[in-house]
Specification:
The protein has 196 residues and is of the alpha/beta class. The protein is 42% helix and 9% strand.
Length: 196
Amino acid sequence: TFHIEDAHTILSFGADFLHTWGDVVGHSMGYGASRDMEQGGFSSRVVCIEPRVGATSSMADNFLAANPGSEVGVAMALAKLVAEKKGYSGPAKALVSGVDVAGAASAAGLTEAKLAEIAGWLSEHTSVVFPGGTTTSANPTDLATAVLLLNEVAGNIGKTVVYGDEINTANHASYGDVVALLNDCKAGKVSVLFLD
């Protein structure tokens, strides 16, 4: 679960978190709270790094059009820069220490100075970083891994990025339920099926 309401900087690598990605209602409420000076005492900064402008990135404070396929390198470069700024010495240190920041910036068509600025924002206060997905990244699994590392070195895990029992899945269909439904469809027992 992503707690946007507590993040001073919100960074997205293509996740349209305000419109179609994940818990849209929760994200929208958290975004509203993060922009309300009276609620948290700050107004968040939204940064989107992706090859094309989407619904969420069109409203970003900073939109960086990275070259397609370069997002993993950018996330890893930011992770290295944030780790250095924060003096990070945890388990991800070895994974980010050899990253070529200049090479990643060049491959993305971005400047090292801009990456350093974003790394500063991620280091100063609580932040949250969203990965993209299969429709926004050439390498969605690698990007998700790089974003996890970035959230780790930024200190977001357990704060704005929480894994656990926060999402109630008690009434979700099981694999067996889906198989039974598909079998009913094949047998002609289902004439219309609506998917949400």
